[in-house]
UniProtKB/TrEMBL annotation:
Official protein name in the record: Tryptophan--tRNA ligase
Lineage, highest ranks first: Bacteria, Bacillati, Actinomycetota, Actinomycetes, Kitasatosporales
SUPFAM superfamilies per UniProt: Nucleotidylyl transferase (SSF52374)
Gene: trpS2
Swiss-Prot/TrEMBL catalytic activity: tRNA(Trp) + L-tryptophan + ATP = L-tryptophyl-tRNA(Trp) + AMP + diphosphate + H(+)
Provenance organism: Streptomyces diastaticus subsp. diastaticus
UniProt cross-references to Gene3D superfamilies, sorted A to Z: HUPs, Tyrosyl-Transfer RNA Synthetase
C-alpha cells in the first residue's frame, strides 16, 4: 500500500482527508503501508522555499494528527528517498509524449497557468507518481477519484516494463471509496474541492479557525427546493453535504435522508457544522503539538525514510539491472 500528499498548501482540506488520508489511517492496520509527503511533486509549480520547508513538516504533523502511527506504517518525505527521482526518469523513458499529453490533470492545471508558466516537471508529474507507487511494489493505492487516470497510467507502464524487460513490478489497483471519492467545493458543488481552489469560501481547510469552518458550512451553496435527499444531478450541494456528514458521523445516507425528512437545509448545515467543529478542534490541537516538537517529528521522518529506502533501493537495483545498466562496483 502506498499513497502520498503534496505539501503545496499549509492545511489539508476536507477532500484530502475524506478522499485519502482517512483511508490511510484505516489501512495501516491491515497493510504494509508506505505514506509520504510528496515534496518533489510540489515543486512542479512555483514554491517559496521557506513555505515549502514549513509546509512539508506541517503535512507530516497533520498526517500524524489524523492518526498515522509510525509503529504501524512507514511515513516519510519523498525527497529523502532519491530512488523516486531515479525511477521517475526511467518511467519518463518508457512513456509516449502523446500518452502523457492526455493526462487530464495536466491539461487542467496547465490551462490555468498558461503555457509559459507551465513547467516540464508538471508534465512529467504522472511518471514520477508512477515511480512512487512501483518502487514499493504496491498493490493498492488509496486516492481520490481525481487520481484514477494516473493510476491507469501506472498499470500501463508497469505492464509495459514487465512485458519488455521481464517481470519486475507489481501492477497496482486504485483503492477509491465511492462515497468519498470526490468531495466538492462548497460554493461550486460540481467542482472538486482543491488546494488550488479559486474561491476560498468553498474550501474547508482542517486547520482553519473552527468557527470560520462552521461559517463556511452554513453559507454553503444549496439547491432550489427544500427537500434533503441525495441526488448528485439535481441536488449537487445537498448531496455533497450529505456525503460529508455521513462519513464523519457514521450514519448512512439513507438514515440521514430519513432523519431530515420535513426539515430544511438549515438544520442539515447546523448539524454538519457542529460535527465538523468537533472533528477539527482536536485535530488542530494534535497538529500543533507535533509542530511544537520538531526534533521528534524529524526523527520520525528520518526513520521512515530509512525504512522506505531499503525497499526502494532494492526495486531500483532490479530495474536498472533489467534495463541493462551496468552496476557501479
Ligand atoms: P492540488 O489541487 O494542488 O492538486 P489537491 O487538493 O488535489 O491539490 P493533493 O495533495 O494533490 O491535493 O491530493 C492528495 C490526495 O487527496 C489525493 O489522493 C487526492 O486524490 C485526494 N483529493 C484531493 N482533492 C480531493 C477531493 N476534492 N475529494 C476527494 N479526494 C481528494
Ligand atoms: Mg491533486
Amino acid at each position: 500500500m502506498l499513497s502520498g500528499i503534496q505539501p503545496t498548501a499549509g492545511s489539508f482540506h476536507l477532500g484530502n482527508y475524506l478522499g485519502a488520508v482517512r483511508q490511510w489511517v484505516a489501512l495501516q492496520e491491515t497493510h504494509d503501508a508506505f505514506y509520504m509527503v510528496v515534496d518533489l511533486h510540489a515543486i512542479t509549480v512555483p514554491q517559496d522555499p521557506a513555505e515549502l520547508r514549513a509546509n512539508t513538516r506541517l503535512a507530516a504533523a497533520q498526517l500524524l494528527a489524523a492518526g498515522l502511527d509510525p509503529e504501524r506504517c512507514t511515513l516519510f518525505v519523498q525527497s529523502h528517498v532519491p530512488e523516486h527521482a531515479q525511477l521517475g526518469w526511467v518511467m519518463n523513458c518508457i512513456t509516449g509524449f502523446g500518452e502523457a499529453s492526455r493526462m487530464t490533470q495536466f491539461k487542467d492545471k496547465s490551462a490555468r497557468q498558461g503555457n509559459d508558466r507551465t513547467t516540464v516537471g508538471l508534465f512529467t508529474y504522472p511518471m514520477l507518481m508512477v515511480a512512487d507507487i512501483l518502487l514499493y511494489q504496491a498493490d493498492q493505492v488509496p486516492v481520490g477519484e481525481d487520481q484514477r487516470q494516473h493510476l491507469e497510467l501506472t498499470r500501463t507502464l508497469a505492464e509495459r516494463f514487465n512485458a519488455t524487460y521481464g517481470g519486475t513490478f507489481t501492477v497496482p489497483d486504485a483503492y477509491i471509496l465511492k462515497e468519498t471519492a470526490k468531495i466538492y467545493d462548497l460554493q461550486e458543488p460540481t467542482a472538486k474541492m482543491s488546494k488550488s481552489a479559486a474561491n476560498a469560501k468553498g474550501l474547508v481547510n482542517l486547520l482553519d479557525e473552527p468557527r470560520a469552518t462552521a461559517k463556511k458550512i452554513k453559507s454553503a451553496v444549496t439547491d432550489t427546493g427544500s427537500e434533503i435527499r441525495f441526488d448528485r444531478a439535481e441536488k449537487a450541494g445537498v448531496s455533497n453535504l450529505l456525503s460529508i456528514l455521513s462519513t464523519l458521523s457514521g450514519e448512512t445516507i439513507a438514515e440521514l435522508e430519513e432523519k431530515y425528512t420535513g426539515k430544511g437545509y438549515g438544520a442539515l448545515k447546523t448539524d454538519l457544522a457542529e460535527v465538523m467543529v468537533d472533528f477539527v478542534t482536536p485535530f488542530r490541537e494534535r497538529t500543533h503539538a507535533y509542530l511544537d516538537d520538531p526534533e521528534t517529528l524529524d526523527a520520525i521522518l528520518a526513520e521512515g525514510a530509512e525504512k522506505a529506502r531499503a525497499v526502494a533501493a532494492e526495486t531500483l537495483a532490479q530495474t536498472y539491472d533489467k534495463l541493462g545498466l551496468v552496476p557501479a562496483k
